[in-house]
Structure formats: C-alpha cells, structure tokens
Write a structure and sequence with these properties.
Largest sheet: 2 strands, antiparallel
Number of helices: 3
Mean pLDDT: 81
Order of helices and strands: EEHEHEH
Oligomer: single chain
Structural class: alpha+beta
C-alpha cells in the first residue's frame, strides 16, 4: 500500500509566539477533504485504469465525465506535465 500526501497542517501564531494548530483550521481541512470525497464518490470508478482513461478523456478519445481511480505519484506527475488536471485525494482511513 502506498501512502499519499495528506493535507497540509494549517498553523497560526499564538499570543506566546508559538505556532499552534487551530480547531477552526482542522475543521475546515476536514470539511474540504470530506467534500472532495463526496464529489469523488459521485464519479465513475475506473480503478487502476485511471491514468489511461484520464488521457483518453483529455485527448477526446472517450466521452467527458468525472472519473476516479488509482495511480502512482509518477503517473500523477506525468498527467500534470501533459496539462491533464488531476487532484489526488487521500484515501479514507477506516
């Protein structure tokens, strides 16, 4: 199993000068990730064919639609370099 990058930890300066994570930032980050997962759940799961299918859609060889699936970090970089917009979303922890 490959670990994907997680959302950034948002910090702010406390009155004592130390950086602390805020509950508000945690809640916003959690909400954003959950919203991305909700949108992903509404898309077509193409599994490990994600990279190939994203290219087919981008180059108009397949019908445009929202898809989700798995790809490596290298696959993601290659797609982005080709101008194909993808958004890695961390897998839900069970």
């Amino acid at each position: 199993m490959q670990r994907l990058p997680s959302s950034p930890h948002l910090t702010r300066q406390s009155s004592h000068g130390a950086s602390t994570r805020t509950h508000e930032s945690d809640a916003e980050t959690h909400w954003l990730i959950e919203e991305l997962r909700r949108l992903a759940d509404a898309s077509e799961d193409v599994g490990d064919r994600f990279t190939d299918e994203a290219r087919r859609i981008h180059y108009q060889e397949a019908k445009p639609r929202s898809i989700r699936g798995q790809g490596t970090l290298e696959d993601t970089r290659d797609l982005l370099e080709e101008g194909i917009l993808v958004l890695p979303v961390p897998a839900k922890r069970h």
